[in-house]
Amino acid sequence: DEILKSAEDISKALNSLSSSKSGQLLSISTLRSAFNTLKGSYDREHGGFGSGQKFPSPNILLFLLRYWESTGEEGALEMVEGTLKAMAIGGIWDHIGYGFHRYSVDTEWLIPHFEKMLYDQALLVMVFTEAYQATHREEYRMTAEQILEYVLRDMTSNGGGFYSAEDAESEGIEGKYYLWKKEEIEEILKPEESELFNRIYQVEKRGNYLDELSGEYNGNNILHLKKPLPDIGEEMDVDADEFKRSIDNIRNKLFQARNKRAHPAKDDKILTDWNGLMIAALARAGRIYNKNRYVEAALNALSFTRENLYKNGRLLHRYRDGEVKVQGYLEDYAYLIWGLLEIYETTGDSSWLQWACKL
């Protein structure tokens, strides 16, 4: 009864907003104008928007997916797919350990600022998952699940909360953890493996990454693809499953070798708002992909949040090493409520909906 009453109150409030001058719903013409603006700034050659450095901008891609769904405008879906495919083959994607870097400094998604942010991972899981729902392309599902593999492996605390970020630098050098020299790869892999990998991932002896100080190539390579792996395998006329196994085996060898390097520093603050986003992403992915592991991770993070960042009916913003600081902001409430609604839809457990209503 309490939940139904809360739902009725929310419905009345939304109806009031939609009929008031200060809170009118966006008109179709406004949405169309937004679409046309994005269409005008879309980079048809490389995906993304604008002609300079590029951010993933998942909020834009989510808007375009919803616009396509509601209007049938194929151009909206084309912009989403063009951007997602370009990002997934570019240097902004960590092809060895997974996860997206914060942005690329060029138009081609090749040279990233190597920092990784939790909020990017969460929102991009949602984008790739909705793109999978729209198109049923397995490559989008695979990327979403690889992002979550990175988060659950490297960004999850023992208590279940999610860390905020990983630095771009290690040992004082931007991107050092992620860059590869051709000779290094050839030492780790068998000759036939290194030949295949270097050809596919565009590894060159001179490198493709300019040294920041000298402005010259010094043998360092940012791994990237010319096209998606399934397309490359098809062009090579090899069995798809066998090709995937070979690449996965090579990737695992390089991952193990890279793991011995000095890691970038981790920003181990646990923030309520960003955790809310990741909880929402995990709950939705668990529901869509039927993966209980994701649901359990979302539930663990919610338990951590309720135990550590919820005091006297109010949210707190930040946790680190047992210390809690700062009263919650509007973002903390909004994003955690989003996570609670997603986990309720996934599990049907009304206690999460009750907490959402209280918040």
Précis, in short:
Helix content is 56%, strand content 8%. It has 14 helices and eleven strands.
What features would you describe in this structure?
- By secondary structure, the protein is of the alpha+beta class.
- The chain is 56% helix and 8% strand.
- It has 14 helices and 11 strands.
- It has helices spanning 2-19, 28-41, 58-71, 74-89, 118-135, 138-154, 182-188, 191-200, 229-235, 240-258, 272-289, 292-308, 330-347, 350-358, and strands at 103-104, 112-113, 116-117, 165-166, 169-170, 173-174, 266-267, 270-271, 310-311, 314-320, 323-327.
- Strands 8, 9, 10 and 11 form a 4-stranded antiparallel β-sheet that branches.
- Strand 1 and strand 2 form a beta hairpin.
- Helix 13 (330-347) packs antiparallel against helix 14 (350-358).
- The longest helix has 19 residues, at 240-258.
- The chain is globular.
- The two termini are 17 Å apart.
How are the elements arranged and paired?
Layout: H1 2-19, H2 28-41, H3 58-71, H4 74-89, E1 103-104, E2 112-113, E3 116-117, H5 118-135, H6 138-154, E4 165-166, E5 169-170, E6 173-174, H7 182-188, H8 191-200, H9 229-235, H10 240-258, E7 266-267, E8 270-271, H11 272-289, H12 292-308, E9 310-311, E10 314-320, E11 323-327, H13 330-347, H14 350-358
Antiparallel strand pairs: 1-2, 3-4, 4-7, 5-6, 8-10, 9-10, 10-11
Helix pairs in contact: 1-14, 3-4, 3-5, 5-6, 5-11, 7-8, 11-12, 11-13, 12-13, 13-14
